[in-house]
């Protein structure tokens, strides 16, 4: 046996195993006992400014407009100011990274806001060596009242409630704190740099079965109406076919599928419309259905049907009003929210969640996924600010319904996040996705600014060993119109902890998707359309959070354009198929060498093995499975030690032609010139022509098999039927083992008894007719 073939990667695109100091070490050498054991501990000085009391008046009006300024060396953070308030409350936290501290004391100053120059009220002074250390899960440090002092150190009127302590990024105050490395960010941009945990909305498939309508009232009663039903849910719009039963009581019995998200903000709007002309439709009535009243089903049992009144609306003085009528048209529908399906909002090839919508159908979790986002290095400049190149990087990780976003590290090509997140795992055959982006919304760039993608990492949980911590630098690879490019590296620490090995092994025997996907499957076209709608809903909801996860970020994480045509991907998939078939081709080549007696000793051994298997056929299956077992054990020594990652050679990203990449990044519909589109169309036609030829050849071989008994060629069929009769008699009177031995010896015969011409059966098969001569 040989070592299994491994596809090598260029060094710059390979994973690099690392050994960071995870968990951190205290100043006295003691390991800090925190739950943040997959990241490097980062020390911060925290200052919580709670409130003040009895502040003296500084204005001529006898009032005070106070705010607090926290100074530590060259870093300065300020609270918001209050007008005319001597007992203000701020409750703001400031965090200063210990790595950047170049001072020995922190100064907390209370000032009075003024038009010309802010007045000094008082200050509190702390020596850094005297500040206590706090490590969660210790209780938060209780704030204390401190008497204000003037610049000479004398006590003055007024007190300030503060809490000052040394802590780490595991502190509860860390996510909402003002950070010293963000001092250059204006106040309106601070919200966009904070870390955040998001939960995507709960998605449902909404099934609307349009059965029939009754008593429709068309305007033109001299013709049979051509009625269809249009259904709208938010931005989603679907319609039935035109009813075959033309009249005022049309029937359809047609299903329409939508994606709905909790909380249900939109109503389902049904409208019966009559096609009075090719481009003119008349609304015969509308029904508005709130989704909160819709039945929810967990299995395939049908729900009850309902009748809804179709209300007629008319335009009166430019306003749409309901028309008063004595009786109403009706529509008969069956509508339900499907809880037994999983709403796909990402590609099924790297889905992170496979559970059904209804929580009642969820199985218990099988483990926990822990992800530590440590740092990045070698990031390329993504934009220019004040005449110099810069990058403001943040990470987004997605698994299941939980998305996380790290804080933005300002102006750094080697940012350090050291943030850790946890997810429950319900299926090991899922993928966690981590993306790195450049924040372009820090300095009021406007709504048109887009966060730039730096790179993405996917890690399949089933490829990870349980309870092992994987720490690697992952290359951030992006495909651009100019070619593949490495944008930097991100260091991750990941651990999959299995809580029940038996339950996890049992999952490998279960269907990948909920059972409704197999009992009542949706078509491929439906799934594509529904996935597109789900992505739009998720991106819209996450874009409304604070800080928002913007549309371009969500779409990149969910691979919204994975279904688009690409010549590069087509080549890559073709060679993937060839890679799958190559072992079969290798076996065929090896068997041909056996038949040609290239190595006589091996051929003789194969003869002996063949005789044993024919004489003792009960050994065939045990031999096959024993051979597979031995192969698996042999390959165990070469098992992958690292998680799989983006492979530029497998993706054919390095060898792609510039025009192919330009076509891949083209918009849909195209925005290129007619000459370029014509050239690409001709290229696609040539490729499709070759595919067409291969498909035609496969069809030809199949039709030749069918023609053996179809009497399309009466002489060939007569020969085959006669041969079948003779073979049946011979096989009946001859022992089966003798037939197998003779056939095997004939196949393995020495080259001296072979001819280079094709065999008789092959000649006969190639002469059989196919339907190619009937093709136009």
Automatic annotation (TrEMBL):
Protein name: Multiple C2 and transmembrane domain-containing protein 2-like protein
Plastid found in the keyword field: no
Start and end residues of each C2 domain: 26-146, 185-308, 350-474
A Pfam short name: C2
Membrane topology listed for this record: Multi-pass membrane protein
Record keywords, A-Z: Membrane, Repeat, Transmembrane, Transmembrane helix
Transmembrane segments: 619-636, 718-748
Compartments where located: Membrane
Broad class of where this protein is predominantly found: membrane
Region (Disordered): 1-26
Recorded coiled-coil stretches: none
GO cellular component annotations of the record: membrane
InterPro entries cross-referenced by the UniProt entry: C2_dom, C2_domain_sf, C2B_MCTP_PRT_plant, C2C_MCTP_PRT_plant, C2D_MCTP_PRT_plant, MCTP_C, QUIRKY-like
Family under the similarity heading: Belongs to the MCTP family.
